[in-house]
């Protein structure tokens, strides 16, 4: 990996990748539990594959974070908001609230992860950081997770297994948790010349219309 990062960028980028690795482990655990609970074979297979992808992403980000940093990061406590996010997902999984789980995991968390990753990807491309092929594979997989979750939810909205008003409420709640994560990493984003406030807006803009209330 050829790294030609300006001094001052490598450390916050490393810490961001470390927080993202924490997020990937949350996604891995959640997808593995979704796979075990899924009532149809197609969903079960997809979630199982997703869990494998997320584990790969976590290992990749952790490795990249270590490579970029001159310091050792603690494995936990990077983002209290992310830990809170994980607790909410964990409670929803435990209670079998699968619509909420897919909203929290595939719709909002994937959306946030893919957004941050695609921006970092642009930044890393501009700065000549290597691993292009690896980064494009990860982005493609994240988009597939988001796409699958969106379709899964839309099928339920159509057949009445998911109520539109309830869905919007749950989306709003998880977008609020995502805001908290962005607030936690705002300083790190600033360190790589990104803006947490713009990300907050973009997370909302990228969601489907039914999720944000643009279409009743
Ligand atoms: Fe991932
Ligand atoms: Fe993902």
Describe the fold and architecture.
With 216 residues, the chain is mainly alpha-helical. It has a single domain, classed as Ferritin (Up-down Bundle), CATH 1.20.1260. It is 79% helix and 0% strand. It has helices at 10-37, 41-68, 80-94, 98-126, 132-159, 164-184, 186-191, 196-206, 209-212. The longest helix is centred in the middle third of the chain and has 29 residues, at 98-126. It is globular. The termini are far apart. The model has no long low-confidence stretch (mean pLDDT 89). One fe (ii) ion binds next to helix 5.
Summarize the structure.
The chain contains nine helices and no strands.
Per-chain topology:
Elements: H1 10-37, H2 41-68, H3 80-94, H4 98-126, H5 132-159, H6 164-184, H7 186-191, H8 196-206, H9 209-212
Helix pairs in contact: 1-2, 1-3, 1-4, 2-5, 3-4, 3-6, 4-5, 4-6, 4-8, 6-8
One fe (ii) ion (FE2) binds near residues 24, 54 and 113.
How much is the radius of gyration in Å? 17 Å
CATH class: Mainly Alpha
Bulk shape: globular
Distance between the termini: 48 Å
What small molecules accompany the polymer chains?
fe (ii) ion
Largest sheet data: none
* Number of H- or I-type helical stretches: 9
CATH topology: Ferritin
Write a concise keyword list for the protein shown above.
mainly alpha; binds fe (ii) ion; single chain; 216 residues; Ferritin
């Amino acid at each position: 990996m050829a790294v030609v990062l300006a001094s001052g960028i490598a450390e916050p980028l490393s810490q961001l990748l470390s927080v993202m690795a924490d997020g990937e482990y949350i996604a891995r655990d959640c997808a593995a539990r979704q796979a075990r609970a899924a009532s149809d074979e197609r969903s079960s297979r997809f979630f199982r594959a997703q869990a494998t992808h997320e584990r790969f992403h976590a290992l990749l980000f952790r490795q990249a974070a270590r490579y970029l940093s001159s310091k050792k990061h603690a494995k936990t406590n990077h983002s209290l908001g992310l830990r809170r996010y994980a607790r909410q997902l964990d409670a929803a999984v435990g209670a079998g609230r699968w619509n909420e789980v897919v909203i929290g995991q595939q719709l909002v968390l994937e959306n946030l992860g893919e957004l941050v990753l695609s921006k970092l990807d642009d930044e890393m491309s501009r700065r000549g950081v290597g691993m292009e092929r690896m980064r494009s594979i990860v982005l493609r997989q994240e988009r597939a997770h988001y796409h699958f979750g969106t379709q899964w939810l839309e099928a339920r909205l159509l057949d009445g297994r998911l109520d539109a008003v309830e869905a919007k409420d749950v989306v709003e709640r998880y977008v609020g948790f995502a805001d908290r994560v962005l607030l936690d990493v705002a300083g790190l984003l600033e360190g790589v010349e990104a803006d947490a406030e713009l990300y907050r807006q973009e997370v909302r803009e990228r969601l489907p219309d039914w999720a944000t209330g643009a279409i009743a």
